[in-house]
Amino acid sequence: MIDRKTARGNRLGLLVTGLTLVLLGLFTLIRGLGLLPQHFAPAGEPLVNGPVRQAFGAAGGWLWWVIGILAVILALIALRWLFAQGRGEAVHDMTLATGPGGETRVASRGLADAITADITSHPGVLGARATLVGTCVHPGVRLRVLMEEHAPINEIRAHLGDVAIPHIREALETDHLRTVTRLKFSRKFASRHRVA
Amino acid sequence: MSTVPPEPPDTRASGPATGPATKAMDNSHDQPPRDEGTASTTPRSDTVPIMSAADRTAVHAFRPRRTLPSVIVSVLLILFGVVVAIGAFSTLAGRPAYGPLLNWASATPWQNPPLLIGAAIAVLIGLWLIVLALRPGRPSLVPLHTGDQELVMGMRRRSFARSLAQAAEAVSGINRAKVRLGGGSAHVIARTRLHDTRGLAEKVRHAVETQMHVLGPISSYPVRVDLRGE
Questions:
Q1: I need a labelling partner for B31 at 20 to 30 A (CA). Which of A87, B83, B108, B152 fits?
Q2: Count of CB atoms situated within 10 Å of the CB of A123
Q3: Given its phi and psi angles, is residue B199 left (phi above 0), alpha (psi -120 to 50 degrees) or beta?
Q4: Would you say A64 and B85 are in contact if contact means Cβ atoms under 8 Å apart?
Q5: Which of B134, B163, B189 is the last residue before a domain boundary?
Q6: Same domain for B118 and B150?
Q7: Whole-prediction pTM value?
Q8: Chain A 41-60, residues with CB within 8 Å of chain B CB atoms
Q9: In terms of domains, do B146 and B223 share one?
Q10: Who among B107, B121, B153 is closest to A157 (CB)?
């Protein structure tokens, strides 16, 4: 699951790209439809004309250098954006507060398994998957819970809120833990048709 | 991480019906379906109170991430950057790679119709990207009330709809039921073999609304019941 920073970055990237496209497109339309004063921006002029060539000629090579380098930077930024999509939030190890006795290191795997076992202890829960995210200062948990079709959802909600999550808080030694839970019903037990 | 103390636990689970869901139930007969795109921060009817911080957090958590458009756009930008870079550095090296492109640009005026059409398309695509970026989008999961800002819960839309459908099927006289969540309402299509269906639609509505209350979604979904014969 991608995190909120990536989601925000995505919207920003889409916004910037969209704005750029709109501006370039609008400029082309305005110029091409003859809406700019014709004595300095005539619509009949080719895209690359005398003054443009002159500018490039006079500048020598450095204009192309600038263009080339900007293009490379753009490609690198876009590459980073692309890779951010795959970046999950899961952390592998979390180091809790360093005390006089040394560090407490929590292996996410072990903790995740413990959380899962805790949640599935409720009869209505068929399965669960827990992922530790965030940092040691701001830890978070992502839960996927698979419930039986007729599971009493309020009980499960209460079990999560009153039992399972306080346990996690204790294990991570924190009072503030942001948990995002995704609930899903299983198709395993098909609903029986009622005969009226 | 916020330092706001968690809100007191939601008592709706055990106590009498309170809160936005109930208010929505009273109006459900007459309200037209709402555009669900606004399910984010604006109150959905005059009677729904402003959302609590916990609810807002939940709604935010399940907003679409815009992953697919981002992948497409980022790949196109990479290609664009590479192409321009090749053009620039090849020209510097004395062997320009895009001779034909330069010839085309020298011969094509700004008012060239294909160019203008292309520009118009670019504007439309750009506007669409802007909308994608700014609109909150429909949450992929139905956010549920928890009363606790640090516990965010959401249910898969299909699961939510199925749970409501099962509540409808539990009403005696109803053979099958299907619930579609769309347009901001819960449209229940219930099939029955009974000939005398007086009051049946009302029972189905009541059953579905009760189950909705149990599930506790943050947005209200007015229930519309459609009774059909088998």
A1: B152
A2: 12
A3: left
A4: no
A5: B134
A6: no
A7: 0.66
A8: 42-49
A9: yes
A10: B153
A137 — contact with chain B (CB < 8 Å)?
Answer: yes
A74 touches chain B (CB under 8 A): yes
Mutation for A interface: B127, B151, B196, B214, most A CBs within 10 A: B151
Region B177-190 average pLDDT: 88
Whether residues B118 and B151 fall in one domain? no
* Phi, psi torsion values for B112, nearest 5 degrees: -55, 125
B73:A17 CB<8 A: yes
B57 and B145 belong to one structural domain: yes
3-state secondary structure of A146: strand
Residue ranges and CATH numbers for the domains of chain A are 4-86 (no CATH), 93-185 (3.30.70.1350)
Q: Is B110 close to A45, i.e. CB distance below 8 A?
A: yes
* Count of domains observed in chain B: 2
Structural domain of residue B213, as residue ranges?
Answer: 20-62+141-229
pLDDT tens by residue, A19-73: 999 999 999 998 888 887 777 777 777 777 777 777 777 777 788 899 999 999 9
CA dist B192 and A135 (Å) reads: 54
| Same domain? B117 vs B171 | no
Partners of A62 on chain B (C-beta within 8 Å) are: none
Distance CA B126, CA B110 (A): 20
